[in-house]
Design brief:
Layout: H1 5-10, H2 18-36, H3 39-50, H4 52-72, H5 75-78
Length: about 80
Amino acid sequence: QSQFGGMLAMFGGTEALVPLKQPFVEKMQAAMVELSQSDSIKQALKEELEAPAMMEEIQANIENIIDQRLNELTPKMVK
């Protein structure tokens, strides 16, 4: 329940928002694509990904994924 619930009910409830959803999603996707192509965003992401703490976290996540996959293997799958 939102503070806008009463006002929204006057305009048809949540069903009134359904036609607005797809255009909103499309505009957000376009904005994200445009933003992701910005040189400043690319540089900021590069710096974050190259940070030692981030590299350690990525490595730990990869190790966890590999361990999970190895634990899922059965002798029959290995043959």
